[in-house]
Amino acid sequence: MEVLRATIYPMLVMGGLAIFFAIGLGIAAKVFYVYVDPKVKEVEGLLPGANCGGCGYAGCADCAAAIVAGEAPVTACVASSEDVFVAIGEVLGKTVEVKEKEIAMIMCRGTADKAKRKFQYMGIEDCRAALLAGGGDKECQYGCLGLGTCVKNCPFDALSMGEDGLPKVDKDKCTGCGTCTRVCPRGIPKLVPVSLKIAVICSSHDTPPVVKKICEVGCQGCGLCKKACPEKAITIVDSLSVVDPSKCTLCGKCFEKCPTGAIQQLLPA
Amino acid sequence: MAQKKSWLKEFTKGLWDEIPPFRFVLGLCPTLACSTAVTDGFGMGLCLTFVVTGANIFISFLRKIIPDEVRIACFIVIIATFVIIVELATQAYFYPLYLSLGIFIPLIVVNCIVLGRAEAFASKNSISLSIADGLGMGLGFTMSLTTLAIFREVLGKGSFAGHFIMWQGFEPFALLQKPPGAFFCLGLMLGIMNLFGKK
Amino acid sequence: MKEEGFIVSVGPHVQGKESITSIMLGFIIALIPAVIASVYYFRIKAIEVILISVISAVIIEAGLQKIMKREVTVLTDYHAILTGLIFGLILPANIPWWAIIIGVFTGLLVGKHVFGGLGSNPFNPALVGWASLKLGYMSHMDISGSILGVIRIEGIGALAEDYSYFSEGYGIESWGSLGGKIKLLIHTLLGWKPLPGEELVGCVGQICALAIIIGAVYLFWKKYISWHIPVGFLGGVLIFSILFYKGEKEFLYPYILIQLLSGGTLIAAFFVATDPITTPVTGAGMLVFGAMAGMITMIGRLWGSWIDPVWFAILVGNALTPLIDKIVKPKPFGRVKSA
Amino acid sequence: MRDILRLVVVLTGICVVCSFSLAIVKKGTEERIEYQKIKFIKAPALKAVLPEHDNDPILERVKVKIAPEKVITVFPAKKGGKLMAIAYETAGDGYGGRIEIMLAINVDGSIAGVKVMKCSETPGVGLKIVTEPWFCDQFKKFTVKDKFILGENVQGISGATISSTGTTKAIGEAVKWFDEIMKELG
Amino acid sequence: MKRSMKGGVYLEESKVESTIEDLPVPQRLVIPLKQHKGPPCKSLLKKGKGVKIGDEIGKSEDEFSAPIYATVSGKVAGLPKRFPDIRGGIAPAVEIESDGKEEWSISSSPQEPLQQSPEALMKAIQQMGLVDFGIDAIPLSAKLGLAQSKHVSAVIINGVDLEPGVAVRYKLVTEKKQELINGIKLIKKILNVNTAYLAIEVKNTTAQEQLPGLVSGVAELAVLDSKFPQGLDIFLVKAIMGKEAPSPNGVPEDVGVCVLGADTVIALWDALKDMKPVIDQVITVYGAVNKPKNLRVRIGTPLKDVLSHCGVNGNIAKVIVGGPMMGLAQYSLEIPVTKEITAIYVQRQSDLATISDQKCINCGWCVKVCPMGLLPNVIASFCQVDMFEEAESYNLSYCIECGCCAYVCPAKIPLVHWIKYGKSQIKREEQ
Amino acid sequence: MAVQEAWTFSDYIMLVVSAVLINNILLIRFLGNCPFLGVSKRMDTAIGMAVAVVFVLSCSGPLTWLVQRFLLEPFKVAYIQTLAFILVIACFVQLVETVIKKVSPPLYRSLGIFLPLITTNCAIFGACILNIREKYDFLQSLIFSFASALGFGLALVIFAGIRERFPFARIPKNFQDTSIGLITAGLIGMSFFAFAGLAK
Ligand SMILES: Cc1cc2nc3c(=O)[nH]c(=O)nc-3n(C[C@H](O)[C@H](O)[C@H](O)COP(=O)(O)O)c2cc1C
Ligand SMILES: Cc1cc2nc3c(=O)[nH]c(=O)nc-3n(C[C@H](O)[C@H](O)[C@H](O)COP(=O)(O)O)c2cc1C
Ligand SMILES: Cc1cc2nc3c(=O)[nH]c(=O)nc-3n(C[C@H](O)[C@H](O)[C@H](O)COP(=O)(O)O)c2cc1C
Ligand SMILES: Cc1cc2nc3c(=O)[nH]c(=O)nc-3n(C[C@H](O)[C@H](O)[C@H](O)CO)c2cc1C
Ligand code: SF4
Ligand code: SF4
Ligand code: SF4
Ligand code: SF4
Ligand code: FES
Question: Which of B33, C154, C235, E397 has the maximal Cβ count within 10 Å?
Fold first, then answer.
């Protein structure tokens, strides 16, 4: 009897508690039912979690919700690669078109010895803050200030400050998230397709005499390249030369003519 | 996504890559409380290993029939059963350990590692992998706890597993035996661990 | 006019003279009287304790700065010296040398460097070191034999019982008379010299109240400290010691005097509770901080286990500082009500 | 409804199975646990307070009901089968919590020994009731008929009035149970 | 009895005591087409054309812009589109080669301003291109218009120079007493108020001796502490009338007061009494110059001419327009004196303020001196880690960038720079 | 086994002082570290968590006391205490969560997210067990539960205050987050030794 009681009682107690709570929970779950889409969590798990904000949403979780809700495309995350998009697509049952990967490129060649300075800047080591003192110390109002705000803000450690005072992109690490483009007060880093073969590495919209005076390597917008190009791939927009890569055949005529070397071949022909 | 998981990999990840509580920051309470002496730390580690492994086996076994609404409740019941078994066993066979671990034996039930493994691993994986995971995590935890306990016992009491081992005239730094000392040691060890390997 | 061009920066273009280094130096200078007094009372022991503390603070600070990959600044700014000096002054004179080193190391590592060095630490490193020793080597940190340690509520009873001790030893005939009161004041200000055959016990820098007050006057004169924290702290101690005084009326005066002028009270009020890094930034906040630290000190002295919990009390204040700063904020100029 | 039923069945099922297995484990370990408890907590104290004996007081322990709500465990010490003394526990309030005491009394009613088993008094102050043997030993001069008054016939530890009072009071109360126990033991 | 403010700092900079002296007109002047808060004026000239003093050379429809007049007779030598301005930006300007004849295009026509109607006066003020002198340079017409629309009940004439050491108003209030008093009367009439205060510094003992008799009946004399930034209008209003203009960006008009600089009021009288535009600006030149001076300078005179007149001292490192606290450092001495400039402060290398990236030590000195009652250390710390929302929750936008906090900071943290940075980033994020 | 004397008012005060300051459940008893480190990044979440813990513990402490007194003890099955308590707590928390989620979404957003964390919070379970081990009666266990939770909340809020300054502190990378959190907890615990001896 004693033995029986010792085994039955615990079972009774626990069974009773369990029935009580299970019924309670079951009813509560029914009465207070709220739907949460489990896909959101799943998608969030696939995103890189860097919360870089490149997608335009307040962090990865927000972006995941938007993707699931259909407000954002599956490829919304700028920091993820193809396989992530495919995986997200799997979760949502969508097929994915993959666009070409982009990486950042520093659109200025005005190193310390080539581009003139207006004055000596003294203050916070940050390009955005430097603009507040005399509008930036570089004569060129479009050029890189070289204080490395982009370097400090790259969430993937893909940028470093070169000895020449211009940032350098590590092509393997860069995910094309665009943070640098956004933080740079002068928009010097630009996102370009990895397969870009030719570009004008300068951001100055100053007129030829001005550029000539202040920077040895800037694009003056003189139009010599435009004249030299047999394919008509080059236009001058607001004193800055622009190459249409789809027309360019890398014949090399423009490089020969450019007085400052602003136009550059990026990949072997 | 569906990569092949190997038994060995699941086992060894708990010993370094995801060693709790350093890389996998859960289960701090027993780590802090049960590291005043090497025997306590080691004993606690083994108790936990038993519970995680046991719970992992059963949860993995039952994972298909447990309804979602009471998932956590069921897991906890299973875990609690193993905890009570440990509680009774230590009382019967390792009474001094039972005394010094105090309420931290029943507290294994809420140890975030155990439930964490149940939730994150056992409820999604096969039994054999769950065993590997449980053993790995448990032994990793035992290792961490013992290391911390060695530090705290040797400097804080001058002894190792109860035997005085320091030089004549050594006076132990009793702070390490006290709660603040526990926090400091664990915090510093974590910081040093972060220097090695990925975070 | 200059080849590289002018310098352009954001204003203001002029600057006050004080720097962190100059303030540190000021604090060190202000502690010199206390150091001299400690050497007068404890002779070689005081020199030992203070030297070991300061030297080990400088060396350990340099080492930790190096390990943490920070600029090694121990020789250019004086904060390691200040930390070491304050730490030395709040230690008992008969503490072993290795304990000082352990205390300095714990204080600097756990109290400061893991937080990121000067300015980042939420707790005063010297006090963290002190508390580590207090909890780690309780027997070496015992000051219960000192007269200045006799500040617990029972202590005043002991004073009364040992009436003859005071009258014979120090010439204080009665507690009530004016002469007795003045003598008592002078003794508590200058410190109690041990009677023949007795050994002086106590903390190195806390014996002579006058020396600390001289240093404090210097700090006030240089405007390195504002009145808020000392007033809050001493006010808290004073109010509590009057409010909760339970003894006979005759002993109220010596009781208050001892609460205010002995033990760590004065060093705490002027030198440690005023540490800028770990205390609130607004005047009102400082007042609240001081008062809380003072009251917790007295609560501990009246009902707690420690003979003098003043350093623990300040650590509690340090812990509460961010909250105080969050709650006690000045009203911005022109803030429109009900915005 | 089906959902709820499933939920109830699974949870209850698991609970019942678990408690059943626990009941079995418990049954298997019960004996040993009780023995262990006494062995580790009480054996050293028993050894210290009881006079020479040749039996195992722990094995021969008996439970005695001394009040409707109060059952205590008594450890008899025998030599050659003859009851020499008994030992049992008492407790009093100290400065830092309960003070647990093992008290041994010879069959003639004289106190055979007193030992503090567990307390959390302050080292250097109240802990002197443990570290200074004379304090506990002084009770040996009394019998169960005596009154224990601190400061009169019992000398307290100076500066630890609370601890001393607690101990003394606890012993004073416990000796009153002696007659009752002897009656039970026969 | 001196009135004072909460917060602020006392600087050792002593006043330049010399009487105001005329600076010879240089060969070549540059007259920027933006010398006011609003957008630049449009040029009305062609290169090579002759001009006379008082010719209108720039015009704008904007309420916050004021017409620009030629300040010298001669020939238009250039019309640069992108001339550097004192804020580091660029604005169009007109370069005039002086012919040394100093001919006016309009003849002097003495008026009786006090007899005219307020409407006529407002129109004249608009026409004369008057601005409230100082870095903000709000056109006087806009400022008085605002005061009228808010029905202010008092005016404060500010004889306190904002920046330590500057002595423009300090000298003008005694050197041009009569003009000042007439100007005050005029303002009272325009704004239709009876209460007027004339604020002067406690340091200005001459004014305290000479003025009381003269101003009685016109304005009440208020003596203020020589403390920075007591000269800012919101703090004058608080010290004199006890009213706080609502922040951020509050103006005294919000609490029914109009504050005008004494120099502005004097210029107003001078302009209206002959209906002639303002062509001179009184400035203090001090700091690391051989002969610190108070000068009356033709608007458009490049800084280099001003500085060489005062004898710059060898190797100068920094040239600041405005004063040491809120002034703007310049990189070019080609920049001309405009209505925005009241002082030029020059520094040597050894005078420069240092900055460091030391961690704030929470000393609270900045809190003690902040006249706006802010926690500059917390705000700047948040800005340092780009937590601008949190910085704003500590009232970042209330900061008037007076610089007191950075002045006292023993850690030499460039607090104002961080604060400006925070504000600029918030503005950028909003766009 | 002396008969327990009736508690006076000051005994209750001591109980509170002890649970909040001296034997702080988090800093001295080491219970509840995971949520302590997890939700102290911002003051508002810390306060949310503190409130949630106070609420849940104040309910589940007495609840488990009742289970012990009226279920486990009468049936002589005290050894399954762990099982019974954790079931009760887990189900109670889940119940609360489900209800709040539906009834008050704003409250759920501020408190609800902490509730799952609470189930596995050692502090809750530990305090419930301590109630029994310390042999508290119903009122005492109610007060102890509440005061323990208050102690947890106090430590959490103090820590959150300190932690809000961490962005400005130049903490070495490897010490960030958990590591520095633990050290800070140790320092706060150390400072609380100021109150040693105020209650038994
Ligand atoms: C860094 C350092 C730490 C030390 N720590 C201790 C200690 O924890 N306990 C101790 O008794 N002695 C310690 N010592 C001191 C020596 O080991 C010494 O042997 C001890 O003080 C015994 O000396 P004594 O016999 O002169 O007292 C330490 C010494 C150094 C340099
Ligand atoms: C740190 C500290 C520890 C104490 N520990 C004890 C103790 O363990 N036992 C005790 O009875 N009193 C203890 N006390 C209390 C005091 O000694 C108290 O004055 C004494 O109990 C009152 O007794 P009295 O009547 O002899 O003065 C302690 C006091 C302090 C400050
Ligand atoms: C904040 C505060 C804390 C207190 N803490 C204690 C305490 O820990 N112990 C104590 O005996 N009295 C404490 N008291 C004082 C008691 O309320 C009461 O005055 C005192 O216990 C009466 O002492 P007695 O009964 O021994 O004469 C405290 C008072 C305050 C204001
Ligand atoms: C300006 C300044 C003043 C200081 N004053 C004190 C002080 O009064 N008391 C103190 O203990 N520490 C003081 N410190 C030092 C500081 O608390 C501690 O030593 C540093 O945080 C680490 O060395 C001061 C630090 C600075 C920067
Ligand atoms: S690219 Fe832009 S952000 Fe980067 S260093 Fe140059 S100016 Fe600064
Ligand atoms: S370099 Fe620019 S685009 Fe590339 S990862 Fe860094 S921030 Fe993103
Ligand atoms: S600059 Fe801004 S924050 Fe600094 S003192 Fe002036 S108003 Fe205050
Ligand atoms: S004055 Fe400088 S160091 Fe002091 S609190 Fe302000 S910012 Fe920090
Ligand atoms: S182990 Fe205690 S809360 Fe996680």
Answer: B33
